[in-house]
Design a protein that fits this description.
With 204 residues, the chain is an alpha+beta fold. It has four helices and seven strands. Helix content is 29%, strand content 32%. A seven-stranded antiparallel beta sheet has the order 1-2-3-7-6-5-4. The longest helix has 22 residues.
Length: 204
């Protein structure tokens, strides 16, 4: 009898322990970090016609970006194109790196790519002339940097101006590109700097 009673007590104890374990609250799963936010159409510098925002796409754009091609990884990257009814267009590319340290390296590589872009374009396209300028830092999160590339084909009489910037917030890096026909005097540099600050601050 004693052994039977002991066996039943052991079973009862095991059942109670099992119920208690089942009743214990489970820790909630860690929520995935929120995806970085993109600019809206109205946050670009004002143009003669309204901006239209395209959808956000995963990966790199199919047509590539002249200055940063080969620098931005496809993994962890999304992009969004913007346009107006005239000859003005823009793009925002956002990359979430595995770590803040790797994002810092990527941002530095992108700055180098922008600073050397014009020289590389001249090597690829004989007859191209232009001026590249660095327009300083925007003090937002881990910082952003603004560049302009003014190009022309004297034989064709065409001129193009591009404004570019790269900024970082933690392990997220964003690149902005804006371009239209004309030269730097026609470009909204002050407005582009403001847009750059907004883009980086808006990421998270």
């Amino acid at each position: 009898m004693r052994s039977t009673r002991t066996f039943r007590t052991a079973l009862l104890t095991a059942a109670v322990v099992g119920l208690a374990a089942t009743a214990l609250p489970t820790a909630p799963a860690a929520a995935a970090p929120a995806a970085p936010k993109f600019l809206s159409a109205g946050q670009w510098p004002a143009s003669l016609t309204p901006w239209t925002a395209g959808p956000v796409h995963k990966g790199l754009p199919e047509d590539g970006s002249v200055c940063t091609a080969g620098t931005i990884p496809a993994k962890g990257t999304r992009h969004r194109d913007f346009r107006t009814e005239l000859d003005t267009g823009a793009r925002q590319t956002v990359t979430v790196a595995p770590t803040a340290a790797k994002a810092k390296v990527l941002a530095a590589e992108l700055r180098t790519a922008l600073a050397t872009c014009l020289e590389r374009l001249k090597e690829q396209e004989p007859g191209l002339e232009g001026v590249s300028r660095y327009h300083g830092r925007v003090n937002v999160e881990e910082g952003a940097h603004v560049y302009s590339i003014d190009t022309s084909y004297p034989e064709a009489g065409s001129t193009d101006i591009g404004l570019h910037s790269v900024g970082r917030d933690g392990r997220t890096v964003t690149v902005l590109e804006w371009g239209q026909l004309g030269d730097l005097d026609d470009a909204p540099l002050k407005g582009f700097r403001k847009t750059t600050g907004t883009a980086v601050a808006k990421l998270h």
